Automatic annotation (TrEMBL):
PROSITE patterns recorded: WD_REPEATS_1, WD_REPEATS_2, WD_REPEATS_REGION
Keyword Repeat appears in the UniProt entry: yes
UniProt-listed CDD domains: WD40
Record GO terms (molecular function): kinase activity; RNA binding
Record-linked SUPFAM superfamilies: WD40 repeat-like
This protein's encoding gene: STRAP_0
GO biological process terms on file: spliceosomal snRNP assembly
Protein name (database record): Serine-threonine kinase receptor-associated protein
Species assigned in the record: Amphibalanus amphitrite (Striped barnacle)
Length: 321
């Protein structure tokens, strides 16, 4: 019996490349997803269906980085207009703006949502206290090129940054100093902190490396058929997905590195991929201006996917309602 073919759901609405996305945790209303786009208008969606919830309007340039806090009440964005912004996710209104001196590429909330971390082309990390928006941020310097990704690590006492200077660094918030770092053979294009709190997923070149958060040592390393921009590890650590230059979404076995799927769907390079918090789907954002949702288990009834099978030219098909 032939395997079911992957039928992604397409989330339209953006008019330029989608470059970042983030999921909330699972809330009483389900989970949510926010996307960053060069059109300057980040969007909030229902995570399991991709249904549009709202658009955050106020940036005057491309939005490069986005973060959704755990309970989906707040959104943070970083943009080419040299600002980071805090938004009310329920009303869509701008709550606070934070001026920088260069493009803000990455943002993240602390675990308790009280702090906002930013990384910019100034090569500086900043932590803003959201309860004291007029106070000066804590600043971390040392990178020698643009900062691409920033994130709070579990517990909130350490933060991580990835830069075009080919380094990934972990900083101690109390001292402002680098606690540990690793030099990569190529510029890192993406870093993800796994939900287990102990594993980093790092992409650079054609490589996906899985590293210990504690030491930054490699645990596993695999290569892909294309230059990669992003990868995401399933909550169960059974599989990982990645995408990049060749428009294809790849799924690999985490234990062996064996390829499981290679699915076409996008019409441009894949800039960002992330698994949903329940692991039932993964989302991808592309140069083609779309978000797409893909099933982890093809053929399972979930969200807008209905498990209705019909034989067409000898193939089993799945419908997406």
């Amino acid at each position: 019996m032939a395997a079911l073919r992957q039928t992604p759901l397409t989330c339209s609405g953006h008019t330029r490349p989608v470059v970042d996305l983030d999921f909330s945790s699972i809330t009483p209303e389900g989970y949510f997803m926010v996307s960053a786009c060069k059109d300057g208008k980040p969007m909030l969606r229902q995570g399991d269906t991709g249904d549009w919830v709202g658009t955050f309007e106020g940036h005057k340039g491309a939005v490069w980085g986005v973060a959704l806090n755990s309970d989906a009440s707040r959104v943070a964005t970083g943009a080419a207009d040299f600002t980071a912004k805090l938004w009310d996710a329920q009303t869509g209104s701008e709550m606070q703006g934070f001026q920088h001196k260069h493009i803000v590429k990455a943002v993240d909330f602390s675990p308790d949502s009280s702090l906002l971390l930013t990384g910019s082309n100034e090569k500086i990390l900043r932590i803003f206290d959201l309860a004291k928006p007029d106070s000066d941020p804590q600043m971390f310097t040392g990178h020698t090129s643009n900062i691409k990704k920033v994130m709070f690590l579990p517990g909130g006492d350490t933060i991580l940054s990835a830069s075009d200077d080919k380094s990934v660094r972990v900083w101690d918030r109390r001292t402002g100093q680098v606690a540990r770092s690793v030099e990569l053979p190529a510029m890192p294009t993406d870093v993800e902190v796994h939900s287990d709190g102990s594993t980093l997923t790092v992409t650079h070149g054609k490589t996906v490396s899985f590293r210990s958060i504690e030491s930054l040592d490699e645990v596993r390393v695999y290569t892909a058929p294309t230059q990669l921009f992003s990868a995401s590890l399933h909550p169960s650590k059974s599989v990982y997905v990645c995408g990049g230059d060749d428009f294809i979404m790849y799924k690999f076995d985490y234990a062996t590195g064996a390829e499981i799927e290679a699915c076409k769907g996008h019409f441009g390079p894949v800039h960002i991929v992330r698994f949903s918090p329940d692991g039932e789907l993964y989302a991808s954002g592309s140069e083609d201006g779309t978000l797409r949702l893909w099933q982890t288990t093809v053929g399972k009834t979930y969200g807008l996917w209905k498990c209705v099978e019909a034989t067409i030219e000898g193939k089993q098909e799945q419908t997406a309602a």
